[in-house]
From TrEMBL, chains A, B, C:
This is Thiamin phosphate synthase YjbQ, UPF0047 family. Signal peptide: none annotated. InterPro entries: UPF0047_YjbQ-like, YjbQ-like_sf. PANTHER family: UNCHARACTERIZED PROTEIN YJBQ-RELATED, UPF0047 PROTEIN C4A8.02C. Belongs to the UPF0047 family. Pfam families: YjbQ. It comes from Sporolactobacillus nakayamae.
Length: 172, 172, 172
């Protein structure tokens, strides 16, 4: 039994949650791993992002968003409304966290206060979870006839490059 | 270290979410696997279904539903209301998905448009997740003194046979 | 490939959800396990508790609670309100479960009816889930630059000692 690792990068959109079907990349990783029986963990370490399991629904709106993703957004908009400013409707991020963020020096993402107003993204990601684990049997991902694995970035403040990691553990 | 697989089938009810305590089947699979130390993944590949971890609560209503499951339904009814017709309160399923579904030819489940009005089931399943992973130590599932594993089908449109899969990975 | 197990105990507070950053304990367990490549499951078997993945946010309120945890509480207070008495706003626990609980004989937690009025805790724990699974690569937990693992007890009725379990599976 061995472990195989594969990361891939997703380019997200701004101003709305950014959903991406990553099933094909996951299945390519399983093929490359040569692991035939075991488990497949698909995770993200970004704290405003989720990996979850659902179906591809064929129809999309004018923005190119799958109808089901738009429906998920409408449900989450009601229970975890988008953060409109500091101090409303969330306490976080507070002054210490803003100061911490302003000191970060990532040339790809210049530090600006409003980019940290993503508390809705954190809480939505907590609800959907940051990983999916599925079995691998006889070299096939156990996802049924219509199941797919989706990555979503709930941070709507800006577009970014995000990483999804696949960890495969089992026997060749 | 090795991987052991066991599927079992659950017959669901229609017109309300269908909850099933599957702990006994999972523990029987662990016994059969002879695996003593490792992890146990309990998953479903059905995209309107969840597997989650909670307690058996002893009392049930006139329908035979555990009080806690009725309480979960009441919470979810408010935030993810049942789909009453196409186009309300969800965009999904749209015309392309309906056309896709009508072409399916599963003799057990004849294609009818209204059977695809289950968007509430998809979103509820996203919130509760499609799997539970627990450790196995000295041959025992690490579920504490009262923890149980539940399968639930949130698709209320019709009764069906659904599959739950157990994947056990570890050492004998 | 081998499996390594480590439990640790968390002392919770009463009268509000009790959040605890357990990342350091998890990483100490990984170091002790000597496992370099594989997966790390962090789970709780308590049915009103969750383990979830998010960021430490630096600011805290007068109670010492991280702003983001207070924000999560406010979201959950609306959708899963705190149980105020038997029969409202939840059916559970019913008379059979109360009778079952009153027969328990745990000297650390004397049986009293009101301590079982924690249905909000059960449902909140279902939404956030009872475990986090992350990869371990080259001896490092794959949690990104700011990701942390949190344990939360949503049972607000009394303070208690709770157990978190780490299961690590992989190769040295």
């Amino acid at each position: 039994m061995t472990a195989y690792f594969k990361d891939f990068v997703i380019s997200t959109v701004a101003d709305r949650p950014s959903y991406h079907n990553v099933t094909e990349q996951v299945e390519q990783a399983i093929d490359k791993s040569k692991i035939k029986n075991g488990i497949c963990l698909v995770q993200t370490a970004h704290t405003t992002c989720s990996v979850y399991f659902d179906e591809y629904m064929h129809d999309s709106n004018y923005y190119g968003d799958d109808y089901l993703h738009v429906d998920i957004n409408h449900v989450l908009d009601k229970i975890v409304p988008r953060q409109s400013t500091e101090n409303y409707p969330y306490l976080s991020p507070g002054p210490k966290h803003i100061a911490y963020g302003m000191k970060k020096n990532d040339p790809a993402y210049p530090a600006v206060e409003w980019t940290m107003l993503n508390t809705d993204g954190h809480i939505r990601a907590d609800l959907l979870g940051n990983s999916v684990t599925l079995g691998i049997k006889d070299g096939k991902l156990m996802r049924g006839s219509v199941g797919s694995i989706f990555f979503v970035d709930f941070d709507q403040t800006r577009k970014r490059d995000r990483t999804v990691s696949v960890v495969i553990q089992g026997d060749e």
